[in-house]
């Protein structure tokens, strides 16, 4: 038998804590997926600026009943086509003057307006305040887009989730339905709805919701086909979890990034489509205003009074750009493979 090896007594003394190596210590903070996405989003300055602009537009549009300086539908024929006037500003384009017969005249004085009367963005051909109408029109455009997008979100996600989860002939049948709906032009749907319903917010919202949910459904269906083969879903099915519980507990949380990003892309598309319909005269009816109707009214006097078209066009452009920049930022924030 080999000789026993005796260890020295100091071999069992505890190590000095000051010399202890913490090579396995986690240096990064413990963050959830949403917290990490928010951290990545904050590093995207363009997306943060776009988000702030969208918040401002939503607050001003939906708070227009409190911050609008005038009634958006109040008609003042004596103040028709007045240019913008900002109190205390003496800059052409903002001081209430116009070029007439080669000379600049005070349009407010010529209209007999009192000294305290001023319109920040001028008036239209009926003397209605442009600023109030832009705020009111932005609220209508955003309302139509958000309601249509919510229908798209609820119906599109449910349809795509069910189609991808069932698979087989059920999936094939549901995808053929989507292809039939996508083959119908949006304008045809709008015209048919106008024949049944009166032109207005309801018909436009139904038309946008009817045709816009198909993209969401196809994206969710494609992701569901991939996720349902993952190990955690198979484990849940083995443990006897119901399909509804698996969908809400496992599938929807993993589909949240796709849903949020697609929603952010759907809203500006709906806003532009509503503006287009109102511009061609089959959307929001007078005296209600939307960005499309304001553009339609403004282009009639664009040669002589360009501000009537410029201001609603600028608002529509900023909203469209902000939504797209914010959606791009969300896509990068929710993608862990994106380089920071």
TrEMBL record:
* Single GO cellular component term: plasma membrane
GO biological process assignments: peptide transport; protein transport; transmembrane transport
Transmembrane regions listed in the UniProt entry: 47-67, 140-165, 177-196, 258-282, 309-327
Report membrane topology.
Multi-pass membrane protein
Q: Which stretches make up the ABC transmembrane type-1 domain?
A: 138-327
Q: Where in the cell is it found?
A: Cell membrane
Cite the InterPro entries for this sequence: BP-dependent_transpt_permease, MetI-like, MetI-like_sf, OppC_N
Q: Which SUPFAM superfamilies match?
A: MetI-like
Superkingdom of origin: Bacteria
Q: Which UniProt keywords apply?
A: Cell membrane, Membrane, Peptide transport, Protein transport, Transmembrane, Transmembrane helix, Transport
Pfam family of the protein (one): OppC_N
Q: Which family does it belong to?
A: Belongs to the binding-protein-dependent transport system permease family. OppBC subfamily.
Protein name per the record: ABC-type dipeptide oligopeptide nickel transport system, permease component
Source organism (scientific name): Secundilactobacillus similis DSM 23365 = JCM 2765
